[in-house]
Request: fold
Amino acid sequence: MNERPELTRNQTLVLSKLEGQEGPLSAYQLLDLLRDDGFRAPLQVYRALDKLMRAGLVHRLESLNAFVACSGHAHAHAGDVTAFAICDQCGQVIELSDRLVSERLDEWVSKTGFKPTGAVLEFRGACAACQARAA
Amino acid sequence: MNERPELTRNQTLVLSKLEGQEGPLSAYQLLDLLRDDGFRAPLQVYRALDKLMRAGLVHRLESLNAFVACSGHAHAHAGDVTAFAICDQCGQVIELSDRLVSERLDEWVSKTGFKPTGAVLEFRGACAACQARAA
DNA sequence: CGCAGTTGTGTTATTCTATTACGTATGCCA
DNA sequence: TGGCATACGTAATAGAATAACACAACTGCG
Ligand SMILES: [Zn+2]
Ligand SMILES: [Zn+2]
Ligand SMILES: [Zn+2]
Ligand SMILES: [Zn+2]
Reply:
């Protein structure tokens, strides 16, 4: 479905930093992590992120102004909305995708006459591990 | 439920600008609109917005970095999640709130063990009027 | 081959968004 | 009166994203 396109050096570097990370990273955090690899300006990061997002390999978290590597198994979300559960304690992000939920949400919103083309669905709270830790 | 607290002059000014507007406004747009009323610095806007958001009178749209006056009738959303349908053509924002949808979403997310305390739900697309106009 | 079109790059500067820090004023209540 | 909470004004700074310009590499094509 979403064949991994050829990635350039910069794109590969950005993606690998995101993949080697539990939680999301901001563009400027990425920049700092990539200084040793020759990155000098924000635009180098943003351009790579842009490509990676269009390829579906990276997601942007609007409520954090940060980016995370896609964790969808075999790249599940084809057309379905993707939701994110962001733990405010440990920063971990869980990616959720479900055909049925997508359809129900679409239906709900469409009732108003609105025709959605995209959605931002981000839940904030505590992941299972952090709840256990707090108990 | 959410009795309107006493609002100060600055808070009243910010709220009235938002209420007299079809779509959302950024903090800096608000600042510009309020120069004649003596506003000089972003912080004056942000502080007022902060209070207004905590009072539930204003919402922040994460995907736009902008703010909109609450349009909930009689202040419906007490505990329920609020979703926003943002028209990318005309900028109008529709506020959606539904007990059943809230519960279903909560259920869905909770299945992973995640315990949500808040949510950002923003749909992008075209409102009914703009679809008609495009047809 | 020569050349246009596309994509990626590097650099600088600028814009837009949000917060920190510091000082002041005001009302409330012990 | 003194302490506390809330709001205010201003300046400086941090953080996020884009605009503008120039160059390199690759592709497809006449
Ligand atoms: Zn994904
Ligand atoms: Zn956690
Ligand atoms: Zn509302
Ligand atoms: Zn519209």
Q: What stands out?
A: Chain A has one domain: 9-134.
